[in-house]
Fold:
Amino acid sequence: MTTNHIEDIQGLAPVLNALPGESVPYYIAAGEGPRYETAGMMWNVVARSQDTGGLFDAAFIHGGRGTDVPFHSLPAHQRSYYVFEGSAQFWIPGESRVLVPGDSVHVPAGVPVAFRLLGNLTKLFLYSAPGGALDALLDAGEPVEHHVYSLRGDGSKTTRSGLVLPGAISDTDLERVASDDTTWDAHIPAGAEAYFLRHLEGDRRAWPDSINAYSSRGRTTGRRYFSVTTLATKQPYIIRHFHQQHTENFLCLSGRVWLWVNGEELLLTQGDFLHAPAGTVHSFAIASHNAQMLGVLTSDVFEPFFDVTGAETTDPVYTEGLIDPGQVLAGIQANPDLDLVVVGPPPERVRATGI
Ligand SMILES: [Fe+2]
Structure:
C-alpha cells in the first residue's frame, strides 16, 4: 500500500451503519446492513467484496429450527462458519457435529458442507475469502426491509429456490452421517482440510487477563485469512497503531468493546462489526468483564503477532494476574518485522461516560 493511500485512509471517519462500496473504515451495528432472504433464512450482509478490496465477504445467516441446507461446495472460496447464537448440526464429508455458540467449522474451497439449524433464531456468522462468495446472492434479488427471517414464506423478494448459496455446486448425494459427540475437536489441522473446532480450543496464547484462541490459521486457509477469538476482562486501550499490509475486522461476540478508529470512538456490543482496512489507525479497550470478540485478519501476514506477544497455553480462559502486563510490548519490540506501525500511546477516552 502506498504512503499516499495510507494517509487517505487515516483521514477518514468510519462510515456508520452502511456498506461503503469501497475499502474504507466502516461500522455495522447488529442488524444493520443489507438483508436478503432465501427460503427460510435471512442473510444479513456485513462485508462484500467491494467493501473489502476483494479480500473477503461476511454475513450473519439466521433462521428457524429445522432450516436445512443440503451439501454444497464453493469451488474458489475458503469458508468459516461460527455459531453466534442457537445451535446447528453441520456435516462435512464423512463427519458431523452439533455445534453451539463459539464452535466453528472451517471449509476449504471445493469441500462440501451441509447444515441444519436446531434452535429458533439460530444465527451463524459466515466469513469467506477471497471476496465474491456472496455475489450471486446479492445479484439474485433486492434487499428486504425487515430484520428477521419470514415465517410464512411471503417475505422474500429474492430467490425462493436457493436453499444453498446461489452459485454453489450441489453435492446432495453425499451421505449425512450421525453426529459424533465424543470427539473433542480441540486442534487446528496442519494443512488445508475441513475441520470442526470447539469454543476457545485450538492454538491459545495468553495475554494479560486475556486469552487469544486462533480458530483458523494461514496454513488452513490458503493464506487468505486467520481468525482469533479474544476473551478478556475489562482493560484500557492498547497503543494506537495501524497495519500496512493487512485488514483487521472486529466482531463483538459478547460484552462491550470500545474501538478507537482514526480518532472516532465507537462502542461495540454483541453483533456489532468493524472493518479496519490497512492504514486505519486504531485501538481497542475491553469495557466489560469476560468480553469476547472475534478478529478476522486478512491476509495471514499478521499471524505471528499473537505467537510472539502471547504465552502458549492450553488454558481455555485467562487467570487474572498470571501474565506480566509488559509481555505484549516486549514481544512487539523484539519483533520489528511485524506488520505493525505504532503511532502513539493509548488514546484517551473520547466520551468519558465512565463505562
Ligand atoms: Fe490492529
The radius of gyration is 20 Å.
